[in-house]
Write a structure and sequence with these properties.
- This protein is α+β, with helices and mostly antiparallel strands.
- It has 2 domains: 148 residues, no CATH class; 175 residues, no CATH class.
- The strands form 4 sheets. Strands 2-3-4 form a 3-stranded antiparallel β-sheet. A 3-stranded antiparallel β-sheet has the order 5-6-7.
- A hairpin with a 2-residue loop joins strand 9 and strand 10.
- Helix 5 runs antiparallel to helix 6 and helix 9 runs parallel beside helix 11.
- It is globular and about 65 Å long.
Amino acid sequence: MVLTPSYIEVDGLVVLLQLYPATPDEPAGVRMRSDFDRPPLRHLMFVTSALMARVSLAEALALIDARQPFPMPYPLTARPTNHEDDYTEDAARWEQLAGWRLDLDDAYYIEAGFLRDPLVIPTSTLRRLVARLYELDADIASGRVEARMDESVLVPPPLPPLPPATATRWEDDEVPMIEEGLAEIDRIDPLTDAMTDPDVDRESQWRRRTVFGLLGESWRRTHAGEDDLPARYRRLNLPFLLAYSRAMDELMAYLQDPERIAITRHLPPPTPFQADVSVDLFRLPQPRRPPGYSLHVWLAHAEAAFVYSRQTGNSSGGDMFTRIDGHMVRLRYRYEVRTVVPVLWRVELA
């Protein structure tokens, strides 16, 4: 029997859970639990609990998709951000919770008026979190998930804040430093079965998180129109950065593919490095797949199987074997920018 997880993770955000026992009038259920290590999440706890008591999942998702406020009792607030209010401190709290920066033009402001330090949360993350809470609550009520908490997986500790955002354009002599970092990752981590040294594993994880964080900033700047970094990579003749830039675009095309969304039931995250799959799935040679599958459909089935079965909180990557439509498949995973959950970086027919 599947036990109730002690927490769920959505886009790097760790949310603790608590069970509510069945009563003569109500089945057992689940809600967010107060997390004193992550105080701003207490605002979200009160808001999501009030939402689940008032509207159905379909109604909640319709409100989010239409960017409408939630029907909240005073003094709870859940509404889309606007251009009049200053959310700088709220966004910094989000960054410390999840480990990445959000787009304040596509976010919700969450506040319980009797608490300090309110929160802003990306709209897409809020949607996924709400859907997960409702679906898990329904699974417990129906008996598909046992109303007993699984305490076997330790809750990951809070993340340290990211370094401050770069305020100015990167100079041309700064960009090759990122290229050198990417080349060094491939040198120490050849992405083969032979890499088993734990020290090498930790070193490559640290380097990958640092350089991939810069790549994420590069992607954000380019797509916000603040810079055209791929053009600079071409002008400076930087092959690693060009390869990663192409792979990031291919990854986002995959994440936005309607077939992938239908199979995984997950909307695309805000940036390539918040996905459950790695950019290396598209930088490395395409994986072999059975006849009749497009690349996106095959990877979507692999992603869905991986997300369903993965464990969190370990210190290194590894392999997972599963069957997808009768085919034995090896799913290879590791930790990248998101230190809380592993991502899928290779799919191989076993």
